[in-house]
Every structure is written in C-alpha cells, then in structure tokens.
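Supplementary Text 2. Reproducibility record for the structural model of the 280-residue chain.

All settings were left at their defaults, and a single model was retained for analysis rather than an ensemble. We include the record here because the model underlies the residue-level annotations in Supplementary Table 4.
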Amino acid sequence: MELEDIKRKKGRKKIVMLTAYDYSFARIIEEAGIDIILVGDSLANVVLGMKQTKEISFEEMFNHTKAVKKAAKDTLVVADMPYVAYQENPSQALFYAKKFVEEAGADAVKIEWFEEAISVTQDLIENNIPVMGHIGLTPQTVDKLGGFKVQGKDYEGAKRLLRQAKIWEREGIFSIVLECIPYELARLITHTLRIPTIGIGAGPFCDGQVLVLYDILGLYKNFRPKFVKVYKDISSLIKEAVLQFKEEVEKNIFPPPPSSFTISQENLERLKKELGERQS
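Retained model, structure tokens:
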C-alpha cells in the first residue's frame, strides 16, 4: 500500500487503520489486508502501563515501529511521533522523524496539532517525510484541553478545528485523524478537504476509521471510550489458557512424555557412572 493509494481512496472506498505494536500482531493485520498500521503512542497505555501517552520515550516507539515493519512489508506503516520527539523540542523533530523512516522503516509519521505544528510539518515535508495530522482530542496535550472531552462542540472550537485542517492540508499532509469531535463537524471537514480523514470517535462520515487493536480485542480494561467496539473479547480466552497451563503444570500433566527429548541409554549410564565416581 502506497501513500497515493490511500489518497485515491477518498470518496471511493473506506480506509481501514488499526494500531499494532509488535511483530506478531502486525503480521495478522497485514494478512487481513488492513490499509494502514499505526504504531500508536497508545503503546504507552495498553502495553507499557503508563498513565499518559506523553510519557513514552522515542526509543520505545522506535523499537516497536521497527518490529512492526518487519512483519508489515506491504502495509503502510505510520509511526506516531512521541511528545518528546517533536513537541518538547520542535527543532529536533526532523532528526527523530528521519530515524523513524530511514532506520525503523516507517512509511510516514503522525503528529498531533500543537503550537508549532506547521513549522514542524514544513520541515518534515521539505525533507520528503510524509506526515499524517491529528486534530480534535490530542492525547499528548490533553491537559491543555481540559481532559478527555469531545472537542469542537461550540462555534469557536469547531471553527478552530476546521481552520487547522485546512491549514494542514495546504502544507501537504497526506491524511488527517479526527478524534472525538461531533460527527457533523467531521462530515464538514471531510467534505471540505481533498485529503482523506480518518475518524476515531468522529462518526461515520470520515473517509476511514481507526481503533486501537487492544480495544477491539477487549484486552485493555482500564478505560473504554464510548466510540470503542469490542469485536472479540479474547482476554477471557487468554485467561482460560493460562489457567489450564497452570493446572497441568501443578498436576504434572504438562509436559507429556511424547513432547520430551531423549538421550541414549548408553550416554545416560556413562553420565551416571561419572557422577557416581565424583561423589565417592
């Protein structure tokens, strides 16, 4: 999947994006034919147990992006730029973005809207690094938004988000994530822009949808937003398997003899003989 393939889908076919953070899940997602894998900074919450996405380091995001790309050879892989890699020091954004693309193998990076989003975007695009934008509820700066709340419900807020989207399109981003905004506003933004919109909690009228893989599988229980749908709750299946393994080990059922390796009786007797001589 190429960037141009994603852009051509606008208005024709819905774009499907999912998060992944490791080789095994990325391979499953690619086999399912998903358009985009986002190595999301939600890794901080669902895998590493952090309270906020802004806590995650560049090294953690880099290593997981590298692992995902090893499995996702034909899927567009987008690396979430962690807070520390561009918002903490915008002048370092290009340095870190290049590492994601040139060393980890990402096809593009995603950044959230912040005060210097445009200058960072310009710098990245001028250096041939594709950028996906993210407006609305921006988790890395959620403290400045008054918490995890729907954004753009009032006139000024909606106008601001529409303006951000139009400015970002003008600067050359290839797509934009709309998170937790009224569906009517998402529809207006989608119809206004020439680039694809990908919604998460933004209603059905976006050009595509994204969810966190651990959410749709019921693996993350700490927080479940209204817009999340659990397609298969595999957490109970995993617990079942773990409990069965525990029981079989405690009852000496596992491992069964056929699965064990053997040594010849001759060599075993030699070892026993040597052991006996040493002990005497």
